[in-house]
Amino acid sequence: MSPLELDFDSCYRAVAARDARFDGRFYTAVTTTRIYCRPICPARTPASRNVRFYRHAASAEAAGFRPCKRCRPELSPGDPGWDVRGDLIGRALRLIDDGAADDHGVSGLASRLHITERHLHRLFVAELGVGPLAVARTKRLLLAKQLLTETALPVTDVAFASGFGSVRQFNATMRETYGFTPSELRATAGGPATRRPASPRSALLETTPRAAPPGTPAAGRTTQTSTPTDSRTTQTSTPTDSRTTQTARPLDGGDPARTATLDGDLVTRAGAAAHGRTTPSPQNGHPEGASPTALPVSSLRLRLHRRDPYDAEAVLAFLASRAIPGLEAADRFSYSRAVPGGTVTLTPQGGHIALDVAVDDTRQLARVVARCRRLLDLDADPIAIAEALGQTSLAPLVEARPGLRVPGTFDGFELAVRAVVGQQISVAGARTLLGRIVARAGRLLVPPPSMAPGPALTHLFPGPAELLQADLEGLGLTNRRVATLKELAARTTAGQLDLDGGQDPAEAVAELVDVPGIGPWTASYIALRALRDPDAWPTGDLVLTKRMAALGIPDDHIERWRPWRAYAALHLWSSS
C-alpha cells in the first residue's frame, strides 16, 4: 500500500487482522468514539460503517479525532513509503520531524525546499488533506503525549521539548485537541510523574541524571527500568554525590515565579530569541555571543518503536566499527554519541530501542529523536524489502539476515566528511583520521552540569563553517583530500548542498560529483546513508564486486534489486 493509496477494504482487513506490516502507514478513526488508532490496536475491531482511514495522524486530528490511549499513535514507526518516493512531500515530512517548521516556520520550511509556501501548502492538502502547519502541530502534540506518559519531565519542560512556544498555548492546544490538559492526560495515563510525591515547584525542578554512557565516571545517576506489561517507564534516583540534588531553576534565570508566555501555537525558535530566549544551533550548541538557555537540564528515557524483524546486532556492529574516538562509543549492546549540549545512548530492547538523552536544553529533543530514528533506520519496512529481494539471487543472504537495516547518520555533513576521508583506505584508518579531525576542529563538549561525559565522549563533530576555518595540516590527510573537504564545507555553508533532507537526492548527488575529489562511489554512499535513498548503489565498490563474483551473481542482477539496492548492498557487505 503506497502513501497515495488507501483502499478501504484493504485497510479494514489489516485492522481486523491487527497486521503489524501496516503500522504507521495509516490510521483508523472511529466515528462513534471520536478516537483514532493504529492498525495494531488491541481494542475490539469497530464496525466498518463506523470507521474512516487517514494517511497521517494530522489528518485524523484535523477531522476532530483524538489519539487512542491503548495503542498510542505517538509510538507508530514512520511510513516508509515516503522514503521510497523521496519527493517534495517526503522530504518536507522528514524536515518537519527534524524541527524545521519549529525553527523557521512554514515559510522557512518552504524556502529549504526551494518552493513557495503556497505551493507547499497545496501539495500537503492534496496528499494528506491538511497543511504542513497541522502536521507540525500534530508532531508536537504526539511527542508531548509520549513525554507525559513515559517520563517524569515537568510539564513546562514537556511544552518546550515538544516545540511549543509557551506553556499557556501548550495547555490550550492539548485541551482543544485531546480534551485534557497535560496534567490531566498524565494522570489518566498513569505515567511516572503520577507515582511521585507532588511538589508545588515541580515545573521548575531539574530531573536527576540516568546512568551515564560508556566512559562516564560514577556520579549522580538515575536508573530507569521498562515494564513489559505496559508502555510506561519508571525512573528511580540513586544519589551518589551532591550532583544528584534537585535544584530549582527559573525558566528565564530570574524570578522563579515567572515562566515563558510567548503567544501563538507555533512560535519559531527565531521568534523565541526575539522575545529574549536563546536557542542552540543544531550543529554547534549556543549561538555566538548568546548566554546559555535557562531551560533545565534533563535526563530521560524514551522508547523508539521499530518494525520487526530488526537486526540490531548488525547495526551496532556497523556503527561500532566506525565509531569516531571522542565523538562516539559503541559495543554490541549500545551506541552512544555526543550531541550539542549533552549525550545520547541507544540500546536495543525487546520490540523497541531505548533512547537515553541527557541534554542541557529540552528543546533539542524532537530533533534528537528524529535523527536517532534515521541513524538506526527504524522506519524501514523489513517485510516488504525481504519479499522483494528474497525473490532474487540474494535470497540466501536475505534469509540468513532477516531485518537487516541500512545505518543512517546523525548529520548529513558529518557523513559526507566520513565518506571522503574513507576513500581508498581501511575502516580503521578512516576512524583514526576522523578522530584527529574531531579533536582538531570539533567543539569541546560542554555537558550538563549533572552529567560529565568522561573520557569517551569529549567533542562534537565540526560543522561545515568550523571545518572550513580549521587547519587540517599535519593530520595525515593528503593535500587533495583537504581541498575536497574544504570545498564540501564551502558548498554546504553556502547552501548549495543540503544533506539533511532539504535537497532532491538526484540534485544533491549531481552537486556532490561536481566537487573535485568526489566520484560516483562517494556520492552514492552519501546518498545511501545520509540522503536515505533506499535504491542507492555504491557504483564501483570493490567489496561488492568481489562478493557478487564469489556468489556467482552477474552484474545485470543489480537492476533486479530496485528499489531496494541500498539494502542489497548491505546484505552483500554483511556476508563478506
TrEMBL record:
Enzyme class, UniProt record, top EC level: hydrolase
Transmembrane listed as a keyword: no
A single Gene Ontology CC term: protein-DNA complex
Top-level lineage group: Bacteria
Record-annotated HTH araC/xylS-type domain positions: 90-188
Low complexity composition bias: residue spans: 217-247
Cofactor: Zn(2+)
Recorded catalytic activity of this chain's protein: Hydrolysis of alkylated DNA, releasing 3-methyladenine, 3-methylguanine, 7-methylguanine and 7-methyladenine
Keywords: Activator, DNA damage, DNA repair, DNA-binding, Glycosidase, Hydrolase, Metal-binding, Methyltransferase, Transcription, Transcription regulation, Transferase, Zinc
GO molecular function: alkylated DNA binding; DNA-3-methyladenine glycosylase activity; DNA-7-methylguanine glycosylase activity; DNA-binding transcription factor activity; methyltransferase activity; sequence-specific DNA binding; zinc ion binding
KW Transferase (keyword) present: yes
One GO BP: methylation
Cross-referenced CDD domains: ENDO3c
Protein's recorded name: DNA-3-methyladenine glycosylase II
Organism: Nonomuraea muscovyensis
Lineage: Bacteria, Bacillati, Actinomycetota, Actinomycetes, Streptosporangiales
